[in-house]
Amino acid sequence: MDEKKLLKLLHDAEEYEDALDMLHPEDALDIHHSKSMLSRDTVQLESLGSSVSKLAVVVGHTKRSPGAHGVEPISMHEYFWNNQLAQQIQNTANSQGVDCKIFFRDGIGILGAYRNVASWLPNACIELHFNAYNGRVKGTETLYGLYGESKKWADAVQNAMITLYERSGTNDRGIKLRKIGERGGKNVNQLKEIPSCLIEPFFGDESSEQAPDSLSVKWT
Ligand SMILES: [Zn+2]
């Protein structure tokens, strides 16, 4: 199957899963931050710019539909992996004087999560995922939508990740504009005034793509 066809199927699957999440509002009460999760990543926010003093982090997927499963050493689904990463980003951001709040889609869907983000009024928003295809593709990409400074924000985040992962050539998959109806488009087009992007740092189903020891992002 080609990648385009798979993207379409994944989009449809995510629409279905998002609908399922909204049919289970009780899931929103089931969120807890597990302190016992492994902490393999450490996050450093270097040279923090004054432009980001309030950062929203959205954990991709939900406990009910947790996304792609990563092979070793990740050995868990996107939702659980990125739950712990979100907490590390929050801790690091807080230690650098940046207000950071984590948002979930459980029980309220993508729209519900972004409504909560919008009412918190952050300077920037990032949704955490990792990619999966056929177990043989590697690379880093960042999705962004049509509004405001999101392209600039996506560019900064992508650049930080390609430095971290030492990507070059086709492994730097670049930033990608996504409209509603395309995979990730619903996520990145909810915030009209707030720069927002969705990251796919690596392919979790490719065994040589290991989660990094550090995610060093320059929030400028
Ligand atoms: Zn995902």
Description:
This protein has 220 residues and is α/β, with parallel strands linked by helices. The chain has one domain (3-218): Zn-dependent exopeptidases (Aminopeptidase, 3-Layer(aba) Sandwich), CATH 3.40.630. The chain is built from five helices and eight strands. The chain has helices at 3-22, 78-95, 109-120, 150-164, 185-188; strands at residues 42-46, 54-59, 99-103, 124-128, 140-144, 172-177, 196-200, 214-218. Strands 3-2-4-7-5-6 form a six-stranded mixed sheet, with helices on both faces. A two-stranded parallel sheet has the order 1-8. Strand 5 (140-144), helix 4 and strand 6 (172-177) form a beta-alpha-beta unit. The longest helix has 20 residues, at 3-22. It is globular. The N and C termini lie far apart (39 Å). The model is unreliable at 32-50 and 214-220 (pLDDT under 50). The structure holds zinc ion (ZN). Zinc ion is lined by residues 60-61, 67, 78, 129.
Question: What is the topology?
Answer:
Blueprint (H helix, E strand, L loop, with lengths): L2 H20 L19 E5 L7 E6 L18 H18 L3 E5 L5 H12 L3 E5 L11 E5 L5 H15 L7 E6 L7 H4 L7 E5 L13 E5 L2
Parallel strand pairs: 1-8, 2-3, 2-4, 4-7, 5-6
Antiparallel strand pairs: 5-7
The structure holds zinc ion (ZN).
